[in-house]
# Entry
Amino acid sequence: MTYATIEIADRINKENRKAARKRWRQSIKGRAWDKAYYQRASVKLKAREKYYENKLKNYYKAENASERFINYD
# Structure
């Protein structure tokens, strides 16, 4: 096998795994697993931290943008 055929095969396998994972997540077992996972305290804490981190990042981005476009009329 050449490098190109291996690369194509890997890409196809990756797409198949991705599609299979999507089907599983949408199944009854997958949805139940997701629900249980997102109710874990550690996962909730991590999500909350990420939420506030993004909120601060967007706030300072907007604040800096308003400082750049000062109207001197």
About this structure: The mean pLDDT is 85.
